[in-house]
Design a protein that fits this description.
The chain contains three helices and six strands. The chain is of the alpha/beta class. Strands 1-3-5 form a three-stranded parallel sheet. The radius of gyration is 22 Å and the shape is flat.
């Protein structure tokens, strides 16, 4: 006979990020600090190797520079309203997202599109 351990429930294989609110970051960091994953680990807010997402609950009264992968729109708005800035980590595609890319048909300063023969 074969004995089996019953399987119950569902186990997520994808690791969920640690949620930290803007109010908590405002309480822990001082004015002008840069909030990075390493800075959060150093202050004991997260364990090393975990992903972090910043949510917008609470208030932000300090000028902070946030360099993390995941932020909610509300968190971004509160940080920027307090005079801070938000950027992805150095070298990431998210920090280079706002590069001017010409739209198809746009040709220099003249504004005329070039005709294509088929």
């Amino acid at each position: 006979m074969m004995r089996r351990i019953p399987k119950r429930g569902f186990t997520h294989l994808k690791e969920r990020p640690v949620i930290i609110n803007v109010g908590k970051i405002d309480a822990v960091f001082s004015d002008g600090d840069t909030v990075t994953l390493q800075a959060l680990v150093d202050r004991g807010l997260v364990d090393a190797g975990r992903k972090v997402k910043i949510l917008g609950a609470g208030t932000c009264s300090k000028k902070l520079r946030v360099e993390l992968d995941a932020l909610s729109a509300g968190a971004r708005a509160r940080i920027e309203k307090a005079g801070g800035s938000v950027a992805g980590p150095a070298g990431s595609k998210k920090s280079e997202k706002n590069v001017d890319v010409p739209t198809p048909g746009e040709k220099g300063d003249s504004g005329e599109s070039e005709a294509v023969e088929i």
